[in-house]
Design brief:
Strand content: under 5%
Number of helices: 7
Radius of gyration: 17 Å
Order of helices and strands: HHHHHHH
Number of strands: 0
Shape: globular
Structural class: mainly alpha
Distance between the termini: 7 Å
Largest sheet: none
Length: 141
């Protein structure tokens, strides 16, 4: 792969990872800071009733996981988990897509889902990470 293409691809994948991290980070903060809101979201969209203390614990676990994702650690697992989590989140809102003019913001989930998929499929080329291994360095050369 030409050096300039690898450089551009690496920067592009880093920006995708940063953008995806930001959204998931805000969702994690919601679980910790606006716990009742997060409890209502889980109940309304997923049919799961959780106590506020369990929601805070989930938020804290999410933050730990997210920093591993942000740093590019364990890309096979963390990038796939992000993709699956966002897929579930996107599909759980399906009813909102049937009334698009009253739920336009929900459609932002689709390009983010595409970004999660692209990041997962191109994970071996995402070389600006702490999780950069000899294998990915070989791909870059």
């Amino acid at each position: 792969m030409p050096v300039q293409l690898q450089k551009n691809l690496s920067i592009s994948l880093l920006t995708l990872r940063l953008g995806i991290f930001l959204v998931f980070f805000m969702w994690g903060l919601d679980k910790i800071i606006a716990t009742e809101h997060a409890v209502n979201v889980f109940s309304g969209f997923y049919g799961i009733n959780l106590s506020p203390s369990v929601m805070i614990a989930l938020g804290l676990l999410q933050m730990v996981f997210l920093f591993a994702f942000l740093l590019g650690l364990w890309r096979n697992k963390t990038y796939l988990a992000i993709l699956v989590l966002h897929l579930v989140s996107t599909l759980s809102s399906f009813a909102k897509y049937l009334d698009p003019m009253n739920n336009l913001l929900f459609f932002a989930a689709w390009p983010m889902l595409a970004a999660c998929l692209a990041l997962y499929l191109l994970r071996d080329y995402d070389t600006i990470t702490l999780g950069n291994t000899t294998k990915t360095q070989a791909v870059a050369n």
